[in-house]
Amino acid sequence: MTAVVQPRPYGLLAEFTHACPLHCPYCSNPLELARRSEELPGAVWERVMAEAAALGVLQVGCSGGEPLLYRDLNRVIRSIRREGMYSNLITSGVGLTSAKARQLVDAGLDAVQISFQSHDPVQADAIAGTRAHDLKLDACAAVRDAGLTLGINVVLHRRNISSVVEIIRLALEVGAMRLELANVQFAGWAWPNRIALLPTRAQVLAADSAVVAEVARMDDRMQVVYVMPDLYGARPKPCLHGWGQRGLTVNPRGDVMPCQAAEAIPGMIFENVQTRSLADIWHQSDAFNRFRGTEWMQEPCRSCPEREKDFGGCRCQAALWTGDAAATDPVCEFSNDRQRVDAFLDHIERGDPSPDWIYRSALTSASVTEVSSSANSARM
Amino acid sequence: MRVKIDIPGEAAPVLPKHVRIQRDRVTDGTILLYPEGALELDVTGVAILGLCDGIRSLNAIVVRLVELFDGDKCVVEADVRLFLSELMSRGLLELRS
Question: Which of A45, A219, B46, B89 has the smallest count of CB within 10 Å of its CB?
Fold first, then answer.
């Protein structure tokens, strides 16, 4: 008998709630949000954490929505520490007072990552669709005072990417040890807003060189991670390092997904932690095995020498652009659907320079359709 | 890694609060956990970090490792410096004086 090397999940993204005080137009949560009443009780999350640690998970991202709105957060963080995993709170910062930060430290939280929308308070609040920027600055101070390490993440898009240098300086000012600058990905709520969100090619080129120059001037105080916008590249990103290879996401209802955006793929059925064990779902479920390895691939991926490097790119992106989740990522220059991406990029260059976007709302999908058809009236 | 960091011999290295040493339940090895990442440590790495208490100087750590492993001082010192400067460049090590 030959031993088969089983993939191991190193990271778990725990989405405790979809509730959030922000209304960012690029929200990565699915169009259909989980209701507060559907959220898992703390006891179930404690079991999930024990099962995750046994599977080999080392890192837990405590996310949402806004995880601070989840009632049993402290209890679950204690269980993450008890299981020997590393916990990182991924938060808007809204509600992160000094008292709250101290409670989280007592529970065993290891690190905090706060999102910023811009360096400029007015622009930041206009992007978030609510007044939050000053609260985020207060939250950074609370995190530092509690002795926790601070990371900052900023989603870059058409309206803030030209300020990337100022954004890096803000992160230094607030005492961040790590800054994640991620160009917007078109999953969830970002997909219907893609025309308003994607930067122009000139903006992207300018930002790329500005980031490189700014990082070269800095000392080792802060690590900067810069995620390029893949639509302007010729090859797809090695999404997730392969489907079902390194990480998993559990949503507020307890559905287990290979990727936080996987609900965008039509016809996927996700197993739930309330009815099956995490190990069983990871190893056996149809959702996790569907795009594992290379057997599922079609041409041109199937015979491509790059297939073990980029894994065919992003399944959600393939589904959104081509309607077929098993297709080659349309970003790839060898994809039969690349012209769809090129037509979109062409529209970005020649269309309305500042189109409106629709703010994220907690509406159900039925009302979303109604709002989408009247974009201007929904603008804040 | 951007710049090779030269650690003074009198400085006392220590892991910052946000970096944790943990046993890996799957491999039974030793790993270093930090925000958004993990490093697998080999036996040498574990031995070096075991001596990084923020009190012992880099020089004293080298002397202790030479005793423990009966190694050549120049080789041990080069190893320790390479390992610790790599951690520093990732923000995973602090120096006390």
Answer: A219
